[in-house]
Design brief:
Helix content is 37%, strand content 14%. The protein is an alpha/beta fold. Helix 10 crosses helix 12 (393-400). The longest helix is centred in the N-terminal third of the chain and has 28 residues, at 98-125. It is elongated.
């Protein structure tokens, strides 16, 4: 498996998002057409690019600079003012092929138009005076050298086939779009023309909002990292009022950070206002980390690796870090208690999946085609809802990511990185510590876990306040109290009676 995934992508660059008014699907189509046309025009030779191309759900991470050594007056120019990163956050899922089909059709139609223009320019360069009318043109063609006639006929047949294919694709059922696009992908022979299940990493992203000195100042034992959408202030405030306010647990310092990217894909007034609100929120709470990538589901792998980079650069003095989703309930006391006896090096735990089956259903959110991963199962990995790493691992994972082609499923990507490093994940000491299925709130049950997905309509603040009540035992079995709330630190304390 590893030899199929290893690829040194140190020089691969994902351009950053910049201000521009040309964001959107049209820009992506134009760039895809530019790539396709340049390959055709240069005789399907690889054109040097600054970085390489990647597609997420059939959409480009567009390059600012795309040049081909082969000079031609019919070269398709890139749109002026093209931003470095035009990726919009698509609403459909990677397993669906709606936007893939739209992209494919647009590429075919645009390519046909470009090639027709190219043929006209070539004929003009051959001194065919089109103003002479049909008779002069027919005379010119009749007296054309045989090899030129053959070239013209080949061009006509080739692009007639493209037009016919495009018409057929438009009329086909959506279930057949995928095979059409796959055929197109195979025809590109190594050019990253259609890779909807990969993201491009590594790349050194910068930070717009940062807390560079907080770890050095507080010297935490445990760092809680919560990836969250920029607009989701509600979840951030709920976490700050519940388990996120736990700053000292079992005499160990705990620090909280929220990791987010850029909102949306452009720089409209609404997004500028949101940036101002984020800066104000950062000044008030001092717990935001905002990087310059577009924040969306398809970029979760980028978000995860940016988190690992930040931990290595700014928080390597801590002992452990936990990545946890914003919709989770976290029992910080049980977490710290588990980590007091955990290994300090090469340690990763959570809800570990072993021999997890790769889903082949195109309608699945986690669909993965065989052309991307031919094996039937994933390597061992920890579900992304919440996992813990020792702080020696972030640097190793960042280095491994330079040799492992990153998939858009971020927790699986970390599993491949751990496999590359030859480090096995650790199962938690108690299998009931992590829950992916939402657990109905029960004070006693919640006292025995570390993290669980909470029911969507639960009042998380009310749950937390009830969980931390000190007026009665958390658990009662045979009228004997088993756990009490520690009112100073929170969480459940075993009874000594």
């Amino acid at each position: 498996m590893r030899h199929e995934l290893k690829k040194d992508v140190t020089n691969d660059v994902v351009p950053r998002s910049t201000s521009s008014e040309v964001h959107g699907i049209q820009v992506r189509h134009q760039n895809s057409v530019a790539l396709l046309f340049q390959n055709i025009h240069c005789g399907f030779q690889r054109c040097p690019v600054k970085g390489t191309w990647a597609l997420i759900n059939g959409q480009d991470l567009a390059q600012q600079h795309f040049q081909c050594n082969h000079q031609s007056q019919s070269r398709l120019p890139l749109p002026p003012g093209l931003p470095g990163h035009t990726l919009q956050c698509p609403g459909d899922r990677p397993g669906r092929i709606d936007s893939s089909a739209r992209l494919y059709k647009a590429m075919m139609v645009h390519t046909l138009d470009v090639r027709l223009q190219s043929i006209m320019a070539w004929r003009k360069a051959s001194q065919v005076d089109l103003r002479l009318g049909a008779e002069a043109e027919a005379f010119s063609v009749a007296n054309m050298q045989p090899w030129k006639k053959l070239c013209c006929r080949c061009y006509t047949v080739f692009f007639s086939l493209i037009l016919a294919t495009s018409i057929i694709v438009i009329a086909m059922d959506s279930s057949l779009f995928q095979s059409s696009v796959r055929m197109f992908d195979i025809s590109m022979k190594g050019e990253e023309a259609y890779k909807p299940y990969y993201v491009k990493y590594p790349h050194k992203y910068g930070f717009i909002i940062n807390e560079e000195e907080k770890c050095q100042r507080l010297r935490p034992f445990l760092v809680l990292m919560v990836p969250v959408a920029p607009h989701n202030m509600v979840d951030r405030d709920i976490i700050r009022r519940t388990w996120g306010k736990e700053s000292v647990v079992l005499e160990k310092v705990v620090s909280l950070f929220f990791l987010l990217g850029l909102p949306g894909g452009g720089q409209g007034d609404g997004e500028k206002l949101q940036e101002q609100q984020l800066r104000a929120e950062s000044r008030e709470h001092g717990d935001l980390l905002q990087s310059d990538f577009l924040d969306c589901y398809k970029n979760l792998t980028i978000k995860t690796m940016v988190m690992m980079e930040w931990l290595d650069d700014h928080c390597s003095t801590a002992s452990y870090a936990m990545k946890i989703d914003s919709d989770m309930f976290l029992n910080v006391r049980n977490l710290v208690g588990m980590l007091l006896d955990a290994p300090r090096d090469s340690y990763m735990t959570g809800l570990v999946q072993t021999q997890a089956e790769i889903l082949r259903d195109p309608t699945s959110k986690w669909y993965m085609p065989m052309v991307v991963l031919p094996q039937s199962t994933y390597p061992r990995y920890a579900l992304g809802l919440g996992y813990v790493v020792s702080l020696d691992l972030p640097r190793k994972l960042v280095e491994a990511s330079r040799h492992v082609r990153p998939l858009y499923i971020e927790d699986v990507h970390l599993g491949f990185c751990m496999e590359y490093l030859g480090i096995d994940l650790s199962d938690p000491p108690y299998e009931g510590y992590f829950h992916v299925v939402p657990m109905p709130y029960d004070r006693c049950d919640y006292s025995k876990l570390i993290a669980t997905t909470i029911e969507p309509y639960s009042d998380r603040i009310q749950v937390w306040e009830d969980f931390n009540r000190a007026d009665q035992p958390i658990c009662q079995e045979d009228n004997q109290p088993l756990f009490f709330v520690d009112t100073q630190r929170g969480g459940a304390t075993p009874s000594l009676s």
